[in-house]
UniProtKB/TrEMBL annotation:
<dbReference type="InterPro" id="IPR036424">
    <property type="entry name" value="UPP_synth-like_sf"/>
</dbReference>
<keyword id="KW-0256">Endoplasmic reticulum</keyword>
<keyword id="KW-0808">Transferase</keyword>
<dbReference type="GO" id="GO:0045547">
    <property type="term" value="F:ditrans,polycis-polyprenyl diphosphate synthase [(2E,6E)-farnesyl diphosphate specific] activity"/>
</dbReference>
<dbReference type="Pfam" id="PF01255">
    <property type="entry name" value="Prenyltransf"/>
</dbReference>
<comment type="similarity">
    <text>Belongs to the UPP synthase family.</text>
</comment>
<dbReference type="GO" id="GO:0016094">
    <property type="term" value="P:polyprenol biosynthetic process"/>
</dbReference>
<keyword id="KW-0472">Membrane</keyword>
<dbReference type="GO" id="GO:1904423">
    <property type="term" value="C:dehydrodolichyl diphosphate synthase complex"/>
</dbReference>
<dbReference type="GO" id="GO:0005789">
    <property type="term" value="C:endoplasmic reticulum membrane"/>
</dbReference>
<keyword id="KW-0175">Coiled coil</keyword>
<dbReference type="InterPro" id="IPR001441">
    <property type="entry name" value="UPP_synth-like"/>
</dbReference>
<protein>
    <recommendedName>
        <fullName>Alkyl transferase</fullName>
        <ecNumber>2.5.1.-</ecNumber>
    </recommendedName>
</protein>
<keyword id="KW-0460">Magnesium</keyword>
<comment type="function">
    <text>With NUS1, forms the dehydrodolichyl diphosphate synthase (DDS) complex, an essential component of the dolichol monophosphate (Dol-P) biosynthetic machinery. Adds multiple copies of isopentenyl pyrophosphate (IPP) to farnesyl pyrophosphate (FPP) to produce dehydrodolichyl diphosphate (Dedol-PP), a precursor of dolichol which is utilized as a sugar carrier in protein glycosylation in the endoplasmic reticulum (ER).</text>
</comment>
<dbReference type="InterPro" id="IPR018520">
    <property type="entry name" value="UPP_synth-like_CS"/>
</dbReference>
<comment type="subunit">
    <text>Forms an active dehydrodolichyl diphosphate synthase complex with NUS1.</text>
</comment>
Amino acid sequence: MNCSVNCIVYWCFKMSTWFPEQPKAWYHKMCIRILEFGPIPKHVAVIMDGNRRFAVKNSMDRAEGHLKGFDKLTEVLEWCLDIGITEVTVYAFSIENFKRSKEEVDCLMELARKKFKRLMEEKDKIKEYGVCVRVLGNVSLLPSDIQEIIAEVVTFSKDNTRAILNVCFAYTSRDEMCTAMKEIAEGVSLGLIKDSDVSEALLEKSLYTGNSPNPDLLVRTSGEVRLSDFLLWQTAYSCLAFVKVLWPEFSRWHLYGCILHYQRNYQQLQRAKEQNEADQLRLQRESDYEIVAQEMDQSETKSLHTLAKQYANDRENRVNNFVQYLHEKRDKFFHDIATKSKKRINGDVTVEINDSDNWMTLPFKSMIVVTDIITIQSDGSDY
């Protein structure tokens, strides 16, 4: 059973929307009202597993199985909004998926290409729903045209606040943690933070998900009971729900069941979270006192408590400035790609020419430049 790119193109012409606006039956409304008497998770993470098995089960092409999985995602996003879940993080494509056959990888890339383009065609809906779309992962591993589409979506929606969709694409948790460690090491080398500032809290803030609270609930479909390198750090104190249904078959009732599972375990999870937070604060405070005591001058007149408090304030300022630096760096990454894409589409190109051994950069549009180095014609196409 082949995963055909042509099949992806054919099915995408059906123009599945990201905003299906399904009518709710009275019994769904009643169930939501009942669930609202208990705590509702604000952030839900989903491992959308079972698309290929669904295709085999229903004697269809793998490509159609993946498309059915996308359609299910758009439905689940609406269900989540209906019930008050304002942030959803989905595992769309693992770095490990690059090891699949070239045909299937091409199929998945084409699906991403078409669906992100479709999302940009629904700008009015993005504004209406107030959805902020973030793409988390090593985006540089993706084809350049997909990077550009993703950058457009991310930059267009970044100021929306009503709902957040995090799409983990070219992602694994181990790669995310390694990237965060490299960023922290860079921060130390640049003098933005000190060695002594490195902590669990700093690492957590340096992850791709640093802008978001950790998931309250993680759902995995297909009956597999493992995390598959997805949000390993962030789900340490999350409620885990493993559902024995393939992702395209996931229904409202399965979602309601997962929320009930979360509500039954809510008190225990909260106690564990609060204990962990208290332990982290205690360890940080002890570390601050130890550092101040080591650096304290014998002639110092201020008390150890006062100096430790001042050190903690300075540390928090350094950490906050560093985290802001990281966010700006990541925003700039997407902004630069989106800007480059717009220039290419508009036919704007930058070329270097040699004028009496003085190099300069000359922007031009739809023109021919002839020098003793190179002849270039810009017609708005890729070179």
